[in-house]
Amino acid sequence: xxxxxxxxxxxxxxxxxxxxxxxxxxxxxxxxxxxxxxxxxxxxxxxxxxxxxxxxxxxxxxxxxxxxxxxxxxxxxxxxxxxxxxxxxxxxxxxxxxxxxxxxxxxxxxxxxxxxxxxxxxxxxxxxxxxxxxxxxxxxxxxxxxxxxxxxxxxxxxxxxxxxxxxxxxxxxxxxxxxxxxxxxxxxxxxxxxxxxxx
Length: 199
Known about the structure:
Layout (H helix, E strand, L loop, with lengths): L23 E2 L20 E5 L5 E5 H5 L7 E5 L4 E12 H4 L9 E6 L4 E5 L9 E6 L2 E2 L9 E3 L12 E7 L6 H4 L18
Parallel strand pairs: 1-5, 2-11
Antiparallel strand pairs: 2-3, 4-5, 5-8, 6-7, 6-11, 8-9, 8-10
């Protein structure tokens, strides 16, 4: 006789409402990368936004540091099924960086040092939803986690939060990035389990 039915999930933990379907909580911070870890000197670091018309807006590291910083505390959800709650970051909101950029684009293709790319709708970078993060847990962001700076878009699966970010290309039409070209979902909402194309 079965003692535990297939539907029994045990007592719900207080954090369960923060856990998207198919995920499990970890207290570690796993390091996953598609290739070698780039080592980017801050003196050489540049971040650029290029509009659909070719207009370029660029920031050096000192210029980024001079902008108003925020300290978001967010949950992270990786497509490999781990979630980490309450991660503390420091960075500049994309609302600040895009405030002076005139564009009719609806999509963004994010570029990283090392050649990685990922795509997402431009509206997902605005309204307090995304940052260029350079600090984690009170310290400088390490290269293993995307330092000196990475994109942080916590409401989407973590592959959208491109490590070692160097720029955003604004596009009128959507264009798949690295993992999206390999079959990963174009949007990547963890609450809808959008891991792969067709999900």
